[in-house]
Design brief:
about 60 residues, about 35% helix, about 10% strand
Length: about 60
């Protein structure tokens, strides 16, 4: 599922992930290019009670694997 919250996360919006509708009990992996925005997104989702993880280092760190 794509949820484009990059600009809001980059601007420091603490409510950037509030409008994302997730099924109850769903595990979430957040992804961005370098990992910072996805880490913030995962943290916000955990604050909302979701089980959320980020792709550490973003897509850039995983390209060569």
């Amino acid at each position: 599922m794509n949820f484009d919250a990059y600009d809001a996360l980059h601007a420091g919006d603490e409510r950037a992930m509030e409008e994302l509708e997730l099924p109850e009990g769903a595990r979430v992996v957040t992804v961005c290019n370098r990992g910072h925005a996805s880490a913030v997104a995962a943290e916000q989702l955990r604050w909302q009670g979701h089980e959320a993880f980020c792709l550490e280092g973003g897509l850039e760190a995983w390209k060569g694997l």
